[in-house]
Amino acid sequence: MNNFKAEKRENTKTGYTNSLRAKGLIPAILYGGKLPNENISVVKKQFQNILDSEAFLSSVLEIEINGKKEKVLPREVSYHAVSDEPIHIDFMRIVSGTKIILEIPVRFINQSESPGLKRGGVLNIVRRKIELNCPADNIPKEIVIDLSGTDIGTSIKISAVKLPENVIPTITDRDFVVATVAAPTVIKEPEKPAEAAAEGADGEATAQTEGAEVKAEQGKDGDAAKKDEKQKDAGGDKKSQAEKKPAEKK
Fold it and tell me: 3-state secondary structure string, 15-33?
């Protein structure tokens, strides 16, 4: 469990909270249980690594305020629209004997022990988080799914997932799928043997040479035909001019 220190803050005005952020603090609020809400601030450096983790909103933390320690659960984080820096955190007190609905992240292990993945199969993750109803005293940090022995076509359903005691999914009317091991979407074409590749290259070169020779011959024939046509046209024009020329008067 991560332990942090927090300080009470009486002033909630915008100018004051901005000055706290400039000093490297994050304004926060602590609520829940029978105690009144408390405005507090926490050191941003202490939270930076855990803030970036996927499990932050399901992590049980212990916060010390003026020497008094309380177990809390982060419920919401607000970020600056431009800088994307955390600007406010909501913490909820954990009250023993109560239940909390949380989205718990799923982690898959032993991918190398999956025959299906070894043969090129793909792990298709349907749910990266599962919404669970958890006792406040027994909140799992993550749900671990073992992929050992899974083959292509395997569907991993929630009934096959081992959950902590008294932790149940909020979806109870069906046995939903968490992930599947699917067949590869792209089949790699086998490489051609070296000899076949060489023969293919020679054939292509021969075809290119023959094509060039045919084009050359066609070009010659075409030029000759054009030359004959020009000569015929020239002869025809001379004859036509001779026919049109009037006879000289005697």
Answer: HHHHHHHHCCEEEEEEECC
Whether 139 and 166 map to the same domain: the answer is yes
| The model's pTM | 0.64
Buried b (16+ CB within 10 A) or exposed e, 156-170: bebeebeeeeebebe
Question: How many angstroms separate the CA atoms of 166 and 173, rounded?
Answer: 18
Structure token digits, residue 117: 């993945």
Q: Is the pLDDT confidence value at 186 over 50?
A: yes
Collapsed DSSP state (helix, strand, coil) of residue 144: strand
Task: Pick the range with the lowest mean pLDDT from 83-87, 189-193, 220-224.
Answer: 220-224
Please report the pLDDT score of residue 194 as a whole number: 59
Residue tagged 């002869």 (tokens) = 235
Residues 101 and 50 reside in one and the same domain: no
The region that residue 67 occupies, defined by phi over 0 for left and psi between -120 and 50 for alpha, beta otherwise, is: left
146, part of any domain: yes
Q: Which helix (H) or strand (E) holds 221?
A: helix 194-244
Residue 150 in any domain: the answer is yes
Count of residues in the chain? 250
Residue scoring higher pLDDT (118 or 244): 118
Q: What is the per-residue pLDDT across 74-103, written as a single tens digit (0 to 9) for each?
A: 999 999 999 999 999 999 999 888 999 999
DSSP string, 171-205: --SS--EEEEEEPPSSPPPPPPPHHHHHHHHHHHH
| Structure-token pair, residue 53 | 């983790």
Cα of 166 vs its chain's centroid, Å: 33
Asked whether residue 215 is assigned to any structural domain, the reply reads: no
Average pLDDT over residues 100-111: 94
DSSP, res 56: G
Max distance between CA atoms of the chain, in angstroms, equals 142
